[in-house]
Amino acid sequence: MSVTTSEPPEQRASRDATTLRSGSLGTADIAFFVVSAAAPLTVMAGVAPLAILLGGIGAPVGYLLAGLTLAVFAVGFTTMSRHVTSGGAFYAFITRGLGRPVGIGAALLALIGYNGMEIGVYGLLATTTRDTLHSLVGADVPWLPVSLAGLVLIGYGGYRSIDFGAKLLGVLLVAETGILVLLAGGVLLKGGAHGLSLASLAPAHVFVPGTAAVLAFAFAAFTGFESTVIYRREARDPERTVPRATYAAVGFLGLFYAFVVWIAVQAFGDDQVVRAAGDDPAGLFFTAIATYVGGWAADLMHLFIVTSVIASLLAFHNAINRYALALAEEGVLPRRLGRVHARHRSPYVAGLAQTVLGALVVLAFWAADADPYQQLLLWVNTPGMIGLLVLQLLAAIAVPCYFRRVRHTEGALRTVVAPVVAAVLLVTAIVLVVTHIDLFTGASPAVNALLVVVAPAVFLLGLPLAWWLRRARPDVYTGFAAEPDEPAGSTGATVPPVSAK
């Protein structure tokens, strides 16, 4: 006689309720999170005019080059994602390739980087909302209530299920990209200012002194695209969904950015667009859409910039919560942060902690009488951007190191050539951003120096933390970034990875 044992239904339901909701996200859903984090409308209307001012009519090509660089990075990145399935994403990849001390430093850098990218944007939310209300109804509102209301709204969005977030971001993303497509349609139908031109693609206009600055802006515009792997545990068929979403996000952003910047050039003409960008950079896109579509479309663009910022905040908030969840499960952060909501299956405690942290930072800048854009956004956002670029570089280096030590059937193009090329290109990107840091911050040299050193300083803090964990909490140290089915203490060097099939 055989005996069958199983969990009681209520115990099984209780256990299942403590995990994220698997199989919830398809390729489009994950791509929505990634593209929304990049905030295409905000990047175009707020930053692209500066790229045109500095780089001239060749600026569209800068976005293509940045997209190509990150597509090369995605080759090795997505290949490794089929073999490393930990919820820690960046820090898990780096740990498996470069060791636990480096991985723990990367985990701290990921927390600071993503929090910096998100919390600073509450300053942008305040300024865009204030500008929109002033433009539409002539009202002037203080910035603090807007930022605090945004914190509550985003906190609620993160508290709800991932399905809710995906649907909301889908709607908001369609709105912000749709208004840019509307602008493009108006310019193309009317033939631009002086007829459509492809002079932006000419080498003489691409390889100019300002191209370095354009590339710095362009790389910053893709920040957060790599967060596709964070949603692996909630993805349907993650071996296929995650790589597809990554390539879809990078491809869309690169082509869309370049196309929209080219449209802006056509709207004013090759010989006038730089002057127009210099005269009114903040109003360049609003002037263009009012001219080619109508004043009502400019009003819509004002509204959709606000929703674009909200979408970016929610996307980064969800990514941060899942990083915190993974680190809580690792034992590096307090275990309480790893609690998952019984009904929504969201990391709600981590979300609450992130919302409280955001509120404290916002209130601190308000108490210091800081400007929400010049200080809160730029001073908090910039170290986060640099931190994520450094994480991308470390992940690119980790890929060939990992595959050199494990048995696999992947080709050298994916495991060696593409990651090495990506690492070289990412070093170039980091150098461009750091050497043009004043364009991002508008701050003094002393402040810029401080903002640049935040990322390496946080990373280096991980080394003594790793040493302490190894001595004081060896179980946490040896289990850090381990695969669910692998013995504690292994770094994956002798364990065959998951089949790529």
Task: Compile the SSE list and pairings.
Layout: H1 9-16, H2 27-38, H3 40-46, H4 48-55, H5 59-81, H6 90-98, H7 100-119, H8 121-137, H9 143-159, H10 162-190, H11 203-206, H12 211-221, H13 238-268, H14 273-279, H15 284-292, H16 295-330, H17 348-367, H18 372-405, H19 412-435, H20 437-441, H21 445-472, H22 474-479
Helix pairs in contact: 2-10, 2-13, 2-16, 3-16, 4-12, 4-14, 5-12, 5-13, 5-18, 5-19, 6-7, 6-18, 7-16, 7-18, 7-21, 8-9, 8-16, 8-18, 9-16, 9-17, 10-13, 10-16, 12-19, 15-16, 16-17, 18-19, 18-21
Membrane topology: Multi-pass membrane protein
Transmembrane segments: 30-55, 61-81, 102-125, 137-156, 168-189, 201-225, 245-265, 285-316, 348-368, 380-403, 415-437, 449-469
Keywords: Membrane, Transmembrane, Transmembrane helix
